[in-house]
Amino acid sequence: MLIPGQRYSTDGPLLMFAGLAAERRGGLVHRIDWTVPELPDDDAERAWVAARVIEAVDAATAAGRAAPVLIGKSLGSLAAPVAAAGNLPAVWLTPLLTDQPTVAALRRATAPFLLVGGTADPVWDDPVARSLTPHVLAIDGADHGMFVPGPLSASAAVLGQVATAIEDFLDRQVWPDRAPG
User: Fold this and answer.
1) Against a cut of 0.85, is the pTM above it?
2) What pLDDT is attached to residue 172?
3) Which pLDDT value is given to residue 67?
4) Could you tell me which of 39, 19, 21, 40 has the C-alpha nearest to residue 30?
5) Contact, 34 vs 4, CB < 8 A?
């Protein structure tokens, strides 16, 4: 299940490649699309995101699909409480590690999850990330969009690293029996 960011759709390269990784392993990918309304505060924003994700998870369950893997970008990581409550594995791309309720939910999680972020991203906290899970990809100098200084080819290489980390996580932690041959 692909969960967008505030201004990062599921068609963005990070989520697009994550979706392809799941599809190549036989996963049925559901893309959540949204326009985030003006909300009065952080609590309302957390509740709004959680409600959208719960709705999508419930729809998948009602359709008889297997429990989803949540794959969210930035604002989508506010769904960490949904993953923790549902024992759902997850991939969080540029998660909001400065948001204490999100970090608390990640601490409660029992299913494996991967955290991906950049050291130049103001919402990334590397020591916190490494205290939450052994599955961390931190890119030196990457910003919130996972871009690094220098030629664009360097940022494209980062996208490749992220895609590989997601594939490895899915193959080892989520679907070890589905790894493509």
Assistant:
1) yes
2) 97
3) 85
4) 19
5) yes
